[in-house]
Amino acid sequence: MSLNGLYSVLFVVVLVYCALALYIFVMQPQLLYYPDLPSRAVQATPADIGLAYEEVTLATEDGPVLQGWFIPRQAARGTLLFCHGNAGNISHRLDSIRLFNDLGLNVLIFDYRGYGESDGKPTEAGTYRDADAAWRYLTEVRTVQSHDIVIFGRSLGAAVAADLATRTTPAAVILESAFTSVPDMAAAIYPWLPVRMLARYQYDTREKLRRITHPVLIIHSSEDEIIPFAHGRQLFESAHEPKQFLELHGGHNDGFLTSRADYTRELDSFIGRYLGKAGN
Q1: I want to staple 158 with a disulfide (CB 3.0 to 4.6 A). Which of 153, 163, 233, 235 is the partner?
Q2: CATH homologous superfamily of domain 35-274?
């Protein structure tokens, strides 16, 4: 190959590389948020699984109005604030709602801005404000005491839950199938791109955990095909005592069902240890 030919090949390679980097930079919202997967429409309600519920409206500080459900439990031992993952909406979490209800918990679950029937478009700062709105609803509208609230987050929702826990005083925090940060995940998926420089989102769960002083339960499946098990272990190492780790089996989206017996037993024990005890 002539020198000019080599330069031409290098030029094409550099051009393709830059185009891919630009694509990753511009398309990050679409690569991170999946409100339309499998559908943005709310397709079912807790009534479809035999649970009474109330539709709630949450006002955020910056304008978007969020939709959610409050699912009461008679003689509840406490209330769980549920931050769901990055795909779908609250109607795709009925299995979890049933499980938490069976554990004796009221559940507040909400859709982030741009998800389900909530207004707006999702952003990192926006999802944090959305969780703030849910916390205010519980503590100000329903006058639930903070030591009667467990903050729960799964996948992307774990990063949102961890952020909320740095500014509030819940009884405990449960993070399931969580990543350490978006740049860490991106670096593993695109090791040949400077994704840490390109990242427009952080969702730095590990950094938030270092600031959380409440009891923490980290849950992760060793068979998680989306977020590596190592992320869960690293988060556990970053957390302060008191802390607990629960290893599941099964995939990213069904580990809690595949390991249902262990999952419910350990959640019941963890929640019972801290819920309702002021000063934790």
Answers
A1: 153
A2: Alpha/Beta hydrolase fold, catalytic domain (3.40.50.1820)
